[in-house]
């Protein structure tokens, strides 16, 4: 334990060394690192090294700030406030007006290329950027100034990553994400609505431990958080595979926690670590709470996936056998064939959409191919 | 007489600018402005009413 290190500072606030190591373990798990690196993370965090952070709020709803402030002991806020030096955050800072702007500009001037910018909210570009101004400057000018001179910028939440809800059609204010507005900035995108604070912290912890940003995909998202499909890690996946679907809010399947695909779940098209990391300190996430996934972290989710409650068409592997006991064994044999049987069942039952969207059951094909490959 | 402006007002959610006219140490007139607009009202137009809550809860 360093005399002036983070562990001691936390200990004085009532966070035990055990809690701290637990935090390091969670971070290693979130970053998909082997447990052998936990001591390295602990060592890196215990150094007296506080990167200066400016948190900008542009065209936002403060949802990502709220997300950051939700955590349990040792609170992420405690860790973050001790590990980093947060010099500017409109919603929680004491100075206002010119004094607030001075805090920001002092960092930009004196620590050029050495501070981390965290941006929450989209950047309106229409009509000269007049739709979001702070201290008389447009969000676009502020982003150019602050992100353009930062060592790295974390675009937190969907708005800062690709425009988010503000850029939904018809995008009245011409909102874009940070990278599009400031192409020369070094940007890590952490989409999500709101972002999961574990992913912000893990990115910072990775930086402090290894001195580099985590591996990113083509959309500048860390692979550790956005490399896996929600559908593949979903706790309701077995019900999808078994053809057990919620068909109406509050029906028996809904009460039993069956698959929400028919109710419009976008999990099969969404890439995010929601099912494993969850929200509110690992308490729950939308699907666990019984609501379909909105694909909130996917680009243009508000416009390209249909309404929240419209079923995604053509998801491979969907099978229907839930009504076998009522229709009879003969029909149950057919259900494996997929949509043909589904349409019949739905027709006989006299409910559901008149023209069901065809669903291709590629599962038998895939199994056949797998078997061939094994031979 | 001096007119002062405080922008941004911090410790609130959203972006706010306050201007005040000060005469003899007293505020005689004041103006406030929300300095951010995204047009969510225009975005939800013609959408499925069942999903509008998801947009409005993000204001």
What would you note in describing this structure?
- The complex is a heterodimer of chains A (375) and B (59).
- By secondary structure, chain A is an alpha/beta fold.
- Chain A has 3 domains: 6-226, NADH:ubiquinone oxidoreductase-like, 20kDa subunit (Rossmann fold, 3-Layer(aba) Sandwich), CATH 3.40.50.700; 228-312, Cytochrome-c3 Hydrogenase, Chain A, domain 2; 321-375, no CATH class.
- Chain A has 20 helices and 9 strands.
- In chain A, the strands form 3 sheets. Chain A has a 5-stranded parallel β-sheet, sandwiched between helices. Chain A has a two-stranded antiparallel ribbon with strand order 4-8. Chain A has a two-stranded antiparallel ribbon with strand order 5-6.
- In chain A, strand 5 (133-134) and strand 6 form a beta hairpin.
- The longest helix of chain A is centred in the first third of the chain and has 14 residues, at 17-30.
- Chain A starts with 5 loop residues before the first helix and ends with a helix.
- The model of chain A is unreliable at 321-359 (pLDDT under 50).
- Chain B has 59 residues and is of the alpha+beta class.
- Chain B has one domain.
- Chain B has 2 helices and 3 strands, in the order βββαα.
- Chain B has helices at residues 40-43, 52-56, and strands spanning 3-6, 16-23, 26-34.
- The longest helix of chain B has 5 residues, at 52-56.
- Chain B is elongated, with a radius of gyration of 18 Å.
- The termini of chain B are far apart.
- The model of chain B has no long low-confidence stretch (mean pLDDT 95).
- Classes of the chains: A alpha/beta (375), B alpha+beta (59).
- The A-B interface holds A 57-59, 61-63, 90-97, 100-101, 122, 124, 131-136, 165-166, 168-173, 175, 193, 294, 302, 307-310 and B 5-15, 35-40, 42-43, 47-48, 50-51, 54-55, 58-59.
